[in-house]
Write a structure and sequence with these properties.
Number of strands: 8
CATH architecture: Beta Barrel
CATH topology: Thrombin, subunit H
Strand content: over 45%
Order of helices and strands: EEEEEEEE
Number of domains: 1
Shape: globular
Helix content: under 10%
CATH class: Mainly Beta
Distance between the termini: 27 Å
């Protein structure tokens, strides 16, 4: 826990957002090309051309917060739903319990 045996899991040039799915052992991240999922050391582009500053996971959905609105992406099928159009910066507070 002191950082002496640190291991690089993922190297990104310009990350914008990142979240971890502990149940599926996946890492989701957004960079300049879009939303990606990292599974079994392989990265896959899920959603192209998204500019996001925050992503979060709840149940089977990835919520992508961008300037033009919130997009809901199914983790299994990749189906995208637009939830809300907004013209301001979003701040997310998540409480579970």
């Amino acid at each position: 826990m002191d950082g002496q045996n640190a291991t690089t899991v993922l190297h990104l040039d310009s990350p914008q957002a990142l979240t971890i799915d502990y149940l599926l052992s996946h890492i989701y991240y957004v960079d300049i090309s879009g939303l990606h999922v990292l599974s079994n050391a392989k990265s896959k582009l899920v959603l192209k051309n998204i500019q996001s500053r925050a992503i979060t996971i709840f149940e089977d959905w990835i919520y992508v917060y961008a300037r033009d609105g919130i997009q809901k992406v199914n983790k299994i099928t990749g189906k995208v739903l637009r939830i809300q159009n907004v013209g301001f910066t979003l701040r997310t507070h998540y409480f579970y319990g």
